[in-house]
Specification:
two-stranded parallel sheet; single chain; 4-stranded parallel beta sheet; 198 residues; alpha/beta; 9% strand
Length: 198
């Protein structure tokens, strides 16, 4: 697995599955044009742009460029890297017929071509950080961040402390926390919050 420090933005779940088999990275999907109306996902994308930076890796067709341009206009702060896949004509194996423009999307591109595109953009590194002590859904429950009477206020306080978007769902918060810290570090921050330390 190759580590990529930036969060990668792709169009759909099959693109995410393809990249997940090659890369150790945070991968977010736009769900096609749904991103135009998804305030929570956009807040998350903007957060990653300001912290790790984001890589936009959409298909090379008209729809892919429309999504890319939307993201480019919607993300004002932080680092944004554009990775472009080559125009390769064909049909993805899971589809009955080619796309409207006949081009392969991210999911259909050969892995070497994908890695070459990422390398060309200068975003590949050999370092793979050890992921120990991950935070689980059960941990959020145990720590009072979900399933309790005041869980929402505790989450909001944590999000404010970490400069995270207000709109994050519990599931999105869990994903982000696992990219930022270990369970031990989370417990320390929650202890500081409960004792009123800044």
């Amino acid at each position: 697995m190759i580590h990529v420090a930036q969060a990668i933005i792709v169009e759909g779940k099959y693109d995410k599955i393809k990249l997940s088999s090659l890369l150790d990275a945070v991968i977010l999907t736009t769900n096609g044009f749904h991103i135009f109306h998804d305030a929570e996902k956009m807040a998350l994308i903007r957060y990653y742009a300001k912290t790790t930076g984001i890589i936009i890796l959409t298909d090379s067709d008209t729809a892919g460029f429309r999504i890319r341009n939307y993201l480019k206009g919607a993300v004002h702060d932080g680092k944004l890297f554009h990775v472009y896949i080559p125009d390769i004509y064909g049909k993805e194996r899971r589809k009955l017929k080619p796309s409207a423009e006949g081009k392969l999307g991210v999911e259909g591109i050969d892995k070497n071509a994908l890695l070459a595109a990422l390398e060309k953009a200068g975003v590949l590194t050999d370092e793979i950080p050890e992921k120990t002590d991950p935070i689980t859904r059960y941990d959020l429950y145990e720590l009072g961040l979900s399933g309790g009477a005041d869980s929402k206020s505790k989450r909001k306080a944590l999000q404010k402390r970490l400069h995270l978007p207000d709109l994050l769902s519990t599931a999105s918060l869990l994903e982000v926390l696992n990219t930022m810290m270990t369970k031990t570090e989370l417990c320390r921050i929650l202890d500081e919050l409960s004792s009123g330390a800044e």
